[in-house]
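debug: dumping io for the single-chain case to check the tokenizer round-trip. Nothing else runs in this session.
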Amino acid sequence: MDGDKSVTATFNFVPPPTTVKISQVYGGGGNSGSTYTNDFIELYNSGSTPVTINGWSVQDTSAAGTDWNNATNGPPTPLSGTIQPGHYYLIQGAVGLNGTTPLPTPDVVGSLSLSGTNSKVALVASTTPLSGPCPLGGLVVDFVGYGSANCAEGGAAAPVLTNTTAAVRRGNGCTDTDNNHADFVTSGPIPRNSSSPVNQCGGDPTQPSGLGIASPAALDPSGNTLLTVNVTPASAPPSTDITVNGDLTSIGGAASQQFYDDGTNGDATAGDKVFSFRATVAPSITTGAKSIVATITDAQARIATAPITLTVQSPSCGVERWTVKVGTDPDAAQVNLDNPVHTTIQELGAITPPADPPGPPDNSRIQPTEGTVYVVDATMTFYKKETDVDYHIVLQDSTGHTMIAEIPFPACTLVPNPSGPGRIFATSPFEQGITNSRAKFDGRFTATTFFQTANVPVRVKGVAFFDFQHGQTGVAPNGIELHPVLDINFTANTSTTLMSSANPSQYGQQVAITATVSNGGAAATPTGSVTFFDGGSPIDTVALDQNGQATFTTSTLSVGPHSITASYEGDDASAPSTSSALSQVVNKADQTITFPAIAPFTWVGGSATLNATASSGLTVTYSVLSGPCSVTGDTLTATAAGSCVVAADQAGDSNYNAAPQTTATATANKADQAITFGALSDKTYGDAPFTVSATGGASGNPVTFVAAGSCTSGGTNGSTITINGAGPCTVTASQAGDSNYNAAPDVPQSFNVNKATAIVSVSGYTGVYDGSAHGATGSATGVGGEDLSGLLNLGANFTNVPGGAANWSFAGNTNYNPASGTVSIIITRATPAFSNLSSPVIGCGTATVSLSGRITSGPLVPTGVVAVTLNGVTQNAAIQPDGSFSSAFATGSLTPAGSPFAVTFSYGGDGNFNPAGGASTLAVFDSVPPTITLNGNVISLWPANKQVYTINVTDLVAGASDGCDAGVNLSSVVISQVSSDEGAASGGDIVIAADCRSVQLRAERDGNGDGRVYTITFRVRDAFGNTTTAAARVIVPHDQGQGNNAVDSGPAYTVSSGCP
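debug: decoded output
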């Protein structure tokens, strides 16, 4: 695009802000194949504050140009206004001759004519034209070189562009590394203006953010695109349970469509925070830029938005008979979509086409052909995408016949615009089928503008259509096509094989001929039907089962050879196929004769009817092979008692072989006789043997008896009956036959032998609890003195007090009645005794002591606790399994004064034991010496004038005490001895008082020494003889004023008191 425009430059020397960048450059507007009519440049403010661009401009020159105000590219386009944070700014460029869709409302209209392939574009904080090939820096805010440009940020240009692609800054405008090659990608143009949804670049740790992308970003109506939102969760606090929903109403989708991060719906990787949804643009959506706003929500109730922009392109739909091809013609509603006709390419090619000229009508259908939906199984040999965006498919059958099938673009269901020029979108009854077929094809193949080879089996359903013939690849001889295709299935090759259940078979034999259709596992098990043929005649059509098998069963095949074939019709996943011929041979059938047993009859005046049958249904003939019998037709008679052998025969015919001869035996029976035997009365076990009698029949043979059950028979003819147990007894009377009479039927007579009563003796038990189980004792005796104690259950045993009732029972047996009763088991409580009771001796001040013992009754141990009492304190000690018990008592407060202390042990009894008691003692002794506390005084005697001083115990001792003897105190302290480190004077230097409570010391020292030290040793004794001593010093300094500095040279002599 070219254009001239005069501008007035405005100089602005303020450093250009860096948050406004060129976010998109498109130079293919109005060019061939483009959707948009104009070039454009797009700006974006990635910052957080508004930026005013008054006095700025965008400028353009060729890839190697130096003139930024030239006739080819046009003058700089001045800018004005303010770009808000996260907003875009659309600058419209020159208009072209092509394209179908204007840009969204631009924020400024300019005349720059950008190259559709290679160029340089600058955003300048001035309207003054730049100069030079690479004017970076200064007032240049941003700079983009693309294609073969000789200047670009970072020294690397963005990729070369086309009429249908733009240079788009990554991150929806947020990415800026000052390297054009790294910052820009090529994509379908997606123009955005200041009214487009706000895009935030993120960076705020307290808020989630996202980057929304459509891939592809430019697509036709009905096209598919993957919408993704790459979410950056908030980190302060972290986002959890993030969801993303997008408003897809701008492309004909849901107002709140969930996006997925679980590996479904187009999502590539589950859990990577990239939420995805594969969307389809509705065919009725108009062309141009479409904005989608995705809403990001986390469990912390924070919401953010991420815009996605895409462009709906203009498809190049066809024209010729177009309404008929896509079903927007008036006759389309008459097409029978519910009853497709299965046919072949050869049959369709044989339909008479319309005369040409004039050829088929432009906006109506040739009935009935173009009003019918056909289904064809064939091989798809070639395919391509035509300039009218139809998919051109060549179908071929096994004999080389071809025809064309075409799948239109779903967005091309157009009709002439009734309100003006051009065409508008319209509904079609074929729309869903076209859309589904297109999707199925795209899922298997990628159509290009040139023919590609496929050679795959397909099943195609489509509406018949007569096209003008102009040398199309694969065109049928009559120009017929399936156009549009309403369904296409890529089928798997199949093979059909036959198997007979019996070959050769016999006439009338049921034969199962099974056809197995296999696609080698390339698809689901074949479905549909198989037609069976005998020679060229169809004999049955059978549906395939779940294993891909169909079975034709017959028993009517005639004698002779048969050529059987099976033809599979195919389904949406499996191609048709025909089996090889199976030669089925049918031979004559064998037949058999069924000769039921001949009913016996009395030889005098009797007869039998013969009823043998042949399996073929043919007539059977009879003859007598042996015995005193004769046959007339099917009636057999006897001339004497005995048996006869009769033969049955069938000679066969054209369908059956002769049957094997079958024989049967007939019997002439003897006469009958009977026995009279009266009923027998019941008995009791232990009763004496008895005899029975009966009257026989006319043969005169004796009647004999046999007993069974609880009795036996013996004596003459078994007439003496002996009882051997209780229960039922049956006596059977019998009489043998002879040559004229049959044996008489046995006559049984039954009676019952009742059970006897046994002698049972059971006694109870009385005793003291001993830990053992006790129960009843007893015995049982039978009527014959036999021991029946094994049948006696003496009931429960009891171990614990008070015992209980023993319910005894006599089980009885086959000969004795049961019995039962109750006796008492009485158990009284035992009295336990204490042993090993502890009598501890402890020292005064011992904190605790354990008092223990054992309570038992022989080997038995009672349960519960023993109450142990010491000095008025009672504690419960649990009895252990061995009878021992123990309890720790606090004894720190016990003194020897109260010793010994009484200890009592008391057991309260339990269910099996009576209460019991015991006693011991606890003694306390004192072994702890008392304590003397000095007051810390050091007495100095001065002047050393040989004067005698009295030193009392209280001058040097603060007190005395004993934790076990309260009588020990300060008055208990006596002086046990006094020593001096210098020798004694002639008058005596140390005199201890008689009560040992004071001592007289002389203030004297060696004139040549270092002072004198008296060491007084104090002693205290408690009531138990424990003693403690402590020493203190009295000094005589050598000189006045020397204080306590006399040196102890060790005792020179010692004076001891006589006090204990």
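debug: round-trip ok. The longest helix spans residues 431-444.
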